[in-house]
Amino acid sequence: MWILAASLCANVYLVAEKYWLSLSTPNENDDVIIGEMTQMMLETDEYQRLAGKETVYSITAGVDRSKGGSEPYNYVVVVKTDKQAYLFSCSDGTCSDVDMIGTMYSDYAEGKTKLPLKE
Q1: pLDDT tens digits for 37-48?
Q2: Contact 108/81 with Cβ under 8 angstroms?
Q3: I need a labelling partner for 5 at 20 to 30 A (CA). Which of 14, 23, 84, 117 fits?
Q4: How far apart are CA 42 and CA 36, in angstroms?
Q5: Can you give the residue range of the structural domain that contains 84?
Q6: How far, CA to CA in Å, does 31 sit from each of 27, 39, 63, 105?
Q7: What is the pLDDT of residues 48-96, one digit of tens each?
């Protein structure tokens, strides 16, 4: 009987883990949308001003379906500089434009890169 209970618990755990990861892991369609958003972000005046004033260390993108909402509002492009990180997302439901939606602390505020090859 305990083998059945252990097996059931393991299966519930594996299904829940797979579901939880699917909320924040981009699929093939997400990768295409995020790639187009990143290109649109690089062409914005906000990014151009930012790149002119601060050192851009990395640009990452992601998806977060855990908070609900609908596409394209669950996609975000993060630009990390030597001062802070800037968040860009679609400005409307058709994603005709990408705007900066906020800022947060940057891992690069101390000026160290993450590449082990540069050490």
Answers
A1: 999 999 999 999
A2: yes
A3: 23
A4: 10
A5: 27-118
A6: 6, 12, 9, 25
A7: 999 999 989 999 988 877 666 666 667 889 999 988 999 998 888 888 8
Residue 33 near residue 54 (C-beta atoms within 8 A): no
Helix (H) or strand (E) holding 79: strand 75-81
What is the residue whose two structure tokens read 């640009």?
59
- Asked if residue 18 is part of any domain, the answer here is no
**Per the confidence metrics, is the pTM higher than 0.90?**
no
In angstroms, how far is CA 60 from the centroid of its own chain?
Answer: 6
Phi-psi region of 78 (alpha: psi -120 to 50; beta: other; left: phi over 0): beta
Measured distance CA(81)–CA(107) in Å, rounded: 8
Residue 52 lies inside a defined structural domain of this protein: yes
Kindly state whether residue 6 falls inside one of the protein's structural domains.
Answer: no
Number of domains in the chain: 1
